[in-house]
Specification:
Helix 24 links the parallel strand 21 and strand 22. The protein is of the alpha/beta class. It is built from 26 helices and 22 strands. Helices cover 40% and strands 13% of the residues. It is elongated.
């Protein structure tokens, strides 16, 4: 394992300059929040020694290259305490300067209220919603283990360039959130020995003493999860003593614990050393005020009249971490060069996946489904995954205990699980490929984000569409961070039938479409499913949700003799599936997923009645919106105002496309428990009703012309 940074004598040293640097960080937190007029100074003050210790002595990182492949990962799960991170990025030399600290929470600054991925150098993930960062850290630890298995599985422990530690700081609030319970349980089960979490146990939240809402033994809970747990109490002597050497020893021991994740519980006093507001909710999320600022600086031996004090010798001392980084990097570079020389094929794979490039000819592996059969799109998706398994080793994922329903398990691929926990149904090893999230959708979403954030692998996770509600915070963050995560959301309508309204999504498609940057994709048949999977994988800057049917759907005849167009048009989000015969269309039917074949049947009725009708398959509105205005007008001619949409869900959003003369056929209430055929009839999702709506729309247009 990597040797921790020590003095020449081999003993840990904490110099006067280190102590002063910590106080500088505390004062910067005080001044920055005072300057902004709002923010969260308290945790950044009391955690300053721990954060400085991590960045100066423990974290393997390179401030000159924040994206260095060999770096450890650091996640500040309590993103409200952003200054805990920003101050260390400044002191370590990541490119943040004092003016950036002064600009906290102001427009265009590198120091927004919560850390934002892709915005500030050194920020590994967007945090703020409590617990999500901890879930990201678990995902990063899983990704690190998977990548080691892909690229360097034979190396001895600690000897691979892919061996590194994922560090996280979590607050009281993080560990109260339900997602933290889910991800911590799974991390313990997975025995993620590359994960170290520092728990800031200050016993304060916005509503002051946590006792008002919280009394559980957090440390006992983590022991029950199977974590390695240590406790450091800076209040144990009856006075407050920041025992940095003890914390250092605990964190080193945690890093060396490779057979399970580690929690170091650090008892702190929030807002230390503020004499009037420490250990209270008042310092958690508000500026101290001028009088308390002065008193706090006096307590640290700083000039109370000066703001943003950073003595040159303190900054120079802190930035010596760059020299340690140079030594760490030289050691790592040698290890990586040796690995590349001995594993050129794996090195080529790593280089490709790290840039998320797809291999040449990969799409030839996609299955083609013959017409004349009926295939659920969830089953077609499973066939796509099986077909791509051998050509895209970076693609991996699983389900939240619904693998047999979501069909997310690649045939013959081992499970990602410690060998000793394999079952009769699922066997695997620590470097496996099939993920088992258990009944933990909230955790699955956060972990998928962490996997995508870590590197070049492409994760996917499956559950029923209705349970996307449990994942929504993580899905929103994936869209915010532009992460290429794929959600396999099956059982996407009342078409799941007998399970009833609790499991039948109604409002979900449109509620998900409201998330900026999320592609909601609902293919019409098996071949469209293959086409949209290909389109999703070609995109590397956004998440996508595949909404797939439980029930079998006709595989459309797209042969040259047919009037049905190729499924390749699905990549554009919307395309002319079946053109009107006999001239310019008088009506356009827009449909998605399992309702496309209903629209095709309605077209036959309308064509028989002399109404020239076009059917547009619209699997992804987001992709369609990306197309040129010329293409969109070609598919949906502005002059053809008689339009009908049909989708087995809320119709609310469709009126933007069907216009004031059109109609939207959908559902305005919850479903029921019955065979899906009966439900489609009961709720009017039939060709006859769609045809009637089209006639009404045509009559309305004619009446206005």
């Amino acid at each position: 394992m990597r040797t921790p940074a020590k003095s020449a004598t081999g003993r840990f040293e904490w110099s006067e300059l280190d102590r002063r640097a910590v106080d500088v960080a505390r004062a910067l937190a005080v001044d920055a929040v005072e300057e902004a007029g709002h923010g969260h100074p308290g945790t950044a003050m009391s955690l300053a020694p721990a954060a400085y210790l991590l960045f100066q002595r423990l974290l393997r990182h390179d401030p000159a290259d924040p994206r260095w492949t060999g770096r450890d990962r650091f996640v500040l799960s309590c993103g409200h305490s952003s200054l805990t991170l920003y101050n260390q990025l400044y002191l370590s030399g990541y490119g943040l300067e004092l003016d950036d600290i002064k600009a906290l929470r102001t427009a265009g600054s590198l120091t927004p209220a919560h850390p934002e991925y892709g915005h500030t150098p050194g920020v590994e993930t967007t945090t703020g919603p409590l617990g999500q960062g901890l879930g990201n850290a678990v995902g990063m630890a899983m990704a690190a283990r998977r990548e080691r298995g892909l690229f360097d599985p034979e190396a001895a422990p600690g000897e691979s360039p892919f061996d590194h530690t994922v560090w996280a700081i979590a607050s009281e609030g993080d560990l109260e959130e339900g997602v933290a319970h889910e991800v911590s349980s799974l991390a313990g089960h997975q025995k993620l020995g590359n994960l170290v979490v520092l728990y800031d146990e200050n016993r304060i939240s916005i509503e002051d003493d946590r006792q008002i809402a919280h009394s559980e033994d957090v440390v006992a809970r983590y022991r029950a999860y199977g974590w390695h747990v240590q406790q450091i109490d800076w209040t144990a002597t009856g006075s407050y003593v920041e025992d940095v050497p003890a914390l250092y020893a605990a964190l080193c021991a945690a890093r060396e614990q490779t057979d399970r994740p580690s929690l170091v519980s650090l008892r702190t006093i929030i807002g230390w050393p503020s004499p009037g507001k420490q250990n209270s909710g008042k310092i958690h999320g508000a500026a101290l005020g001028a009088q308390e600022v002065a008193a706090t600086k006096e307590a640290m031996g700083l000039d109370p009249e000066l703001r943003f004090q950073v003595p040159a010798e303190v900054l120079a001392h802190a930035r010596q971490v760059g020299e340690r980084a140079r030594l760490d990097r030289a050691e790592w570079d040698k290890r990586e060069q040796d690995w590349r020389a001995g594993s050129p094929e794996r090195a080529a794979l790593f280089d490709r996946t790290s840039t998320r490039e797809l291999p040449e000819g990969w799409a030839k592996a996609l299955p083609v489904f013959e017409p004349g059969q009926a295939v659920a799109t969830r089953k077609a998706s499973g066939e796509v995954l099986n077909a791509l398994a051998s050509v895209l080793p970076e693609l991996w994922g699983g389900s939240a205990d619904l693998a047999e329903s979501n069909l997310t398990t690649m045939k013959g691929e081992p499970s990602f699980i410690p060998e000793e926990l394999s079952t009769d149904t699922f066997t695997g090893h620590r470097y496996g490929r099939t993920l088992h999230f258990g009944i933990r959708e909230h955790a699955m979403g956060a972990i998928l984000n962490g996997i995508a954030l870590h590197g070049g692998t492409r994760p996917y996770g499956g559950t029923f569409l209705v349970f996307s509600d449990y994942m929504r915070p993580a899905v929103r963050l994936a869209a915010m961070m532009k992460l290429p995560v794929t959600y396999v959301w099956t059982h996407d309508s009342i078409g799941l039938g007998e399970d009833g309204p609790t499991h039948q999504p109604i409002e979900h498609l449109w509620s998900l479409r409201l998330i900026p940057g999320l592609d909601v994709v609902r293919p019409a048949d098996a071949n469209e499913t293959a086409a949209v999977w290909a389109s999703v994988l070609r995109r590397t800057d956004r998440p996508a949700g595949l909404c797939l049917s439980r029930q079998n759907l006709p595989v459309l005849d797209r042969s040259p003799q047919s009037d049905i167009e190729s499924a390749e048009g699905a990549a554009r989000g919307g395309y002319i599936l079946a053109e009107a015969t006999g001239g310019t269309p008088e009506a356009v039917l827009l449909a998605t997923g399992s309702e496309v074949h209903i629209a095709l049947d309605a077209r036959r009725i309308l064509q028989r009645d002399g109404i020239r009708t076009r059917v547009v398959s619209m699997p992804c509105l987001e992709w369609f919106d990306e197309q040129s205005q010329e293409y969109r007008d070609l598919v949906l001619p502005p002059q053809v105002r008689a339009r009908v949409s049909v989708e087995a869900g809320s119709a609310l959003g469709w009126y933007a496309l069907v216009g004031d003369a059109g109609q939207a056929v959908g559902l305005d209430g919850f479903g029921a428990s019955a065979p899906y055929q009966a439900l489609y009839e009961r709720y009017g999702l039939t060709a006859e009703r769609v045809a009637a709506a089209a006639r009404s729309s045509v009559a309305r247009v004619r009446g206005r012309s």
